[in-house]
Amino acid sequence: MWKKFFDGIIADRVIILESDEDGDNFYDDGNSCAVRVETRPWVDHRHDSEVVAGKAGPRESDCETVKFEAGTAEDLERVLIEQAGFTLSAAKEIARIAGLTDEDTFAGEPAYLSSRLVPGVHVASFDADLVRGLRLNTVDKWLEYPRMQIAIRNETGDAYRTIGADSMGEWINTIQWFLAQGYTDELGPDGGTWKGCDAVFSRKA
Question: In sequence order, which residues have a C-beta less than 8 Å from that of residue 18 and are 6 or more positions away?
């Protein structure tokens, strides 16, 4: 039985990963299909189904949905690069998430953080850069309520996205990333909370 364990955005494309929970899926040659992959363009359905990946317009390969099964990191990386247009580093990171390799492609960077979009609120024009920079996994709902949350405001001042952090390392890395990118820390060094969020960031247009 296939079971989904990752549904997020990597390199401006949706990635869905499913594992062979029962170990009963095999290729014709008898080798195990360890992971099933689906990748498609990242589409914001709330805004006229416009593809938001890449300001100059998506590549031809970004306009296709690709589905396949893989048993090794090499198989997965090859298909992602040849059929879906991923870079080698992004393909290796997906293979690591899929559990096919232990290679730490992004050593020193924050791990994938869970994040939610606020329903009915306009997504900021800089959101794609934020998702890519922090490598956010956008979820419909929290599987477990995060220990700390960070709110992000759009250009009109509305909080449109929240990011969860469960460890002090994730928290510090994320806060430092926002400050390095020139975001305004609205709560400042004295801390405090706003509507359940432990930090609030905004950015001038």
Answer: 2, 3, 4, 5, 35, 36, 37
